[in-house]
Amino acid sequence: MKRMIRCAIVALCLAASAAVVFPVAFANDCAQRCYAQENACRRATKDSPSCGAELTRCLQSCRAKR
Predict the structure, then answer these.
(1) What is the total count of domains within the chain?
(2) What is the mean pLDDT of the chain?
(3) Other CB atoms closer than 10 Å to residue 50's CB: what's the count?
(4) Rounded to whole angstroms, how far apart are CA atoms 45 and 29?
(5) CA 66, CA 54: separation in Å to the nearest integer?
(6) Domain range for residue 61?
(7) pTM score, two decimals?
(8) CB distance 40 to 4 below 8 Å
(9) From the centroid of its chain, how far is CA 20?
(10) Helices and strands of the chain, counted as H and E runs
């Protein structure tokens, strides 16, 4: 009986940690894509200020998806 309780506690802890880790990983991937897009924009437009605005919108969308 004690073994089942321990296994249940371990499973609950693993599930809780996965619920925390996956959104953080998604947010990091999303932000990396935003920065890559910004770099490409700056190269293509010779450092246009509009690239910064696009970056802000992109990062905000990443945050909204969390």
Answers:
(1) 1
(2) 76
(3) 10
(4) 24
(5) 19
(6) 23-66
(7) 0.59
(8) no
(9) 11
(10) 2, 0
